[in-house]
Specification:
The complex is a heterodimer of chains A (107) and B (117).
Chain A: E1 4-5, E2 10-13, E3 19-25, E4 33-38, E5 45-49, E6 53-54, E7 62-67, E8 70-75, E9 84-90, E10 97-98, E11 102-106
Parallel strand pairs in A: 2-11
Antiparallel strand pairs in A: 1-3, 3-8, 4-5, 4-9, 5-6, 7-8, 9-10, 9-11
Chain B: E1 3-6, E2 10-12, E3 18-25, E4 34-40, E5 44-52, E6 57-60, E7 68-73, E8 78-83, E9 92-100, E10 103-107, E11 111-115
Parallel strand pairs in B: 2-11
Antiparallel strand pairs in B: 1-3, 3-8, 4-5, 4-9, 5-6, 7-8, 9-10, 9-11
The chains are: A mainly beta (107), B mainly beta (117).
């Protein structure tokens, strides 16, 4: 199975800052990566598909980039409501696999 | 709008089975794959499998073959996941999700399953 590694389990940032959350695949997954946001007690919300495409309704401060094995979710002008867990998903090879998640804390 | 409404929380005995439902609305149920995910604290998220309601075709993560069975009822736009021979390792929150661009775009609210005697 492809392993998706989010090395930063926790990240702390301030309102208005820019933060980058990374995800590394154990093998080439082309651009077959999605990003999700999960707030406490809620189901995940889709942010990005195919590495860099924003889902409808997602604020443009969320940007995805990368291909191959290295992927990044960047949040510009962080807002207090961005407090959440963020995780990546590869859907290049079955079984699809998720990163372990990065918890974003707002100072 | 797209909605996926899952069945409520379940407390079940070890060794038994449970069937979770996921009722879809707001889109053409038969035209999209629907996936199922397991989430446990400390274990992250796991992809269980997915089903195409239009044909009934399924894919399973090898890890969940024999554990999960995915079905769909076109007449009620409802997908089901049955989990069998339950153990404490199956205690988790289970999500269904519509798939678009090969990944989930809309998720259900989640169903908590607790396996305990």
């Amino acid at each position: 199975d492809i392993v998706m590694t989010q090395s930063q389990k926790f990240m702390s940032t301030s309102v208005g800052d820019r933060v980058s959350i990374t995800c590394k695949a154990s093998q080439n997954v082309r651009k077959a990566v999605a990003w999700y946001q999960q707030k406490p007690g809620q189901s995940p919300k889709a942010l990005i598909y195919l590495a860099s495409n924003r889902h409808t309704g997602v604020p443009d401060r969320f940007t995805g980039s990368g291909s191959g094995t290295d992927f990044t979710l960047t949040i510009n002008n962080v807002q207090s409501e961005d407090l959440a867990d963020y995780f990546c998903l590869q859907h290049w090879n079955y079984p699809y696999t998720f990163g372990g998640g990065t918890k974003l804390e707002i100072k | 709008q797209v909605q996926l409404l899952q069945s409520g929380a379940d407390l079940v005995r070890p060794g038994t089975s449970v069937k979770i439902s996921c009722k879809a609305s707001g889109y053409a149920f038969t035209n999209y794959w629907l996936g199922w995910i397991k989430q446990r604290p400390g274990h992250g998220l796991e992809w269980i499998g997915d089903i195409y309601p239009g044909s009934g075709n399924t894919y399973y993560n090898e890890k969940f073959k024999g554990k999960a069975t995915l079905t769909a009822d076109k007449s009620s736009s409802t997908a089901f996941m049955q989990l069998s021979s339950l153990t404490s390792e199956d205690s988790a929150v289970y999500f269904c999700g519509r798939m678009l661009h090969y990944a989930m775009d809309y998720w259900g609210q989640g169903t908590s399953v607790t396996v305990s005697s």
